[in-house]
Amino acid sequence: MKEFNLGGSLVGEKHPPFIVAEMSGNHNQSLQRALEIVEAAARAGVAAVKLQTYTADTITLDINQGDFFIEDTDSLWQGRSLHELYKEAYTPWEWHEAIFKRCRELGLMAFSTPFDETAVDFLESLEVPCYKIASFENTDLPLIRKVAATGKPMIISTGMASVAEIDETVRVAWEAGCEDLILLKCTSSYPASPEDSNLLTIPHMRKLFDCPVGLSDHTMGIGAAVASVALGACLIEKHFTLSRADGGVDSAFSMEPEEMGQLVIESERAWQALGRISYSPGEQERKSLKFRRSLYIAKDMAAGEALTPENLRIVRPGYGLEPKYYEVLLGKKVKQAVKKGTPLSWDLI
Question: Do 298 and 263 fall within a single domain?
Fold first, then answer.
């Protein structure tokens, strides 16, 4: 399986899962809080922090009714206009350089999701190492072409997209100059339920599009994300906040620092546990072979005495003959006196 070169970091099945903390709007319009989120992400052990680069005016129209007003009662953002929501959630562009600088100081990769062509131009001026395409923009082919033309690696979320739509997006990206591409399985609901995650899509997607696949996860907790590693996910993106209790547009489905730290640890453990197909004892297991059951003399025996269920037992440890010989040996005679606790061997028969 092809590896994914993510700005110098190799991502793929031969490497531990690449964990991305998505800041989104959880800075609550405070640069200080944004920097604290970066610091908390570094302490949690993530590989990267991701921003979103847009303004309310580059992502929607300033209309407070009709199509531009959220009426869905199941939505976290019901009763708000899109423009109002994005005005609250956006990360001021003048903050990007300071946030990226702090990430670099802490050894984190920093990149962003552009939502229009002006955002791509801006991010190019900051020399971002790669780009993320959000699920809601994965059919914006002009944006796909613009990003692919930079030659930078692309990470594309596939939420809501059909196979045909993903195929078209991938083809456009390749044709426009993208050389490194990773797809993310994503369920675009907030929060998402585990039942709707359909993680079995991951190996299918990886085979179908012949590229690495990760997970953009909006479920609560770490269960779905850890499970995705067993199915081949090599990158996991989760929204991240200092505290859900602090509020914010995405806080309700974001991870807190302790949870993110657990995700980093458990996803790597899951990856390590995959190993390879093996039915023989491993190096560490060999030390345990001596604790298997085997055949032992259970009573003192005189020379010429026959083996019976009373004086021949299948017990631990495993220094005697294997239990499979038990029935064969019953009735056979020992050729010398044998003490209780002697492991049975062929030279005693």
Answer: no
